[in-house]
């Protein structure tokens, strides 16, 4: 059973960088054909894909967020990390990490989500 757990600060000031970590248990993030995503849901809105990192380490980002987003990983800790720079209040959302197997297939494992508020 794969489990994902998000961690990071719940409050970030405008213009700063949001940094969240997803710790994975029950499976290695380097397992072939597994992809590890960051997704968010702003208040009152739908889910928004931010980006993902493949088992190979390749990264893919949403075009609308690409200029501010970086996803990396620490294979020794079985973790992957989201960094979103120059945040504004519009980046306030519940942030989730999730896994899918092969593009086109649905997410099969999700973290519980973590609320991040951007405010001074």
Structure write-up:
There is one protein chain. With 120 residues, the protein is mainly β. It contains no helices and eleven strands. It has strands spanning 3-7, 11-12, 18-25, 34-41, 48-54, 59-61, 69-74, 79-84, 93-101, 107-110, 114-118. Strands 2, 4, 5, 6, 9, 10 and 11 form a seven-stranded mixed β-sheet that branches. It has a four-stranded antiparallel β-sheet with strand order 1-3-8-7, with no helix packed on it. The model has no long low-confidence stretch (mean pLDDT 96).
Write the layout of secondary structure elements.
Elements: E1 3-7, E2 11-12, E3 18-25, E4 34-41, E5 48-54, E6 59-61, E7 69-74, E8 79-84, E9 93-101, E10 107-110, E11 114-118
Parallel strand pairs: 2-11
Antiparallel strand pairs: 1-3, 3-8, 4-5, 4-9, 5-6, 7-8, 9-10, 9-11
Instruction: Please tell me how large the radius of gyration is.
Output: 13 Å
Shape: globular
Strand content: over 45%
Low-pLDDT regions = none
Helix content: under 10%
Distance between the termini: 39 Å
Instruction: Sketch the topology as an H/E string, one letter per element.
Output: EEEEEEEEEEE
How many β-strand stretches?
A: 11
**Biggest sheet, in brief?**
7 strands, mixed
Structure classification: mainly beta
User: Number of helical runs?
Assistant: 0
Average pLDDT: 96
Keywords, separated by commas or semicolons:
120 residues, mainly beta, seven-stranded mixed β-sheet, four-stranded antiparallel β-sheet, 11 strands, 52% strand, globular
């Amino acid at each position: 059973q794969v489990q994902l757990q998000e961690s990071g600060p719940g409050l970030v000031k405008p213009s700063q960088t949001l940094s969240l970590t997803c710790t994975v248990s029950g499976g290695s993030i380097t397992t072939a054909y597994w992809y590890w995503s960051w997704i968010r849901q702003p208040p009152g809105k739908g889910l928004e894909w931010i980006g993902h990192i493949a088992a190979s380490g390749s990264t893919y980002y949403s075009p609308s967020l690409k200029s501010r987003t970086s996803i990396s990983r620490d294979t020794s800790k079985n973790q992957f990390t989201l960094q979103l720079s120059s945040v504004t209040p519009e980046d306030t959302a519940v942030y989730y990490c999730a896994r899918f197997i092969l593009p086109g297939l649905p997410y099969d494992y999700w973290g519980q989500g973590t609320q991040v508020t951007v405010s001074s």
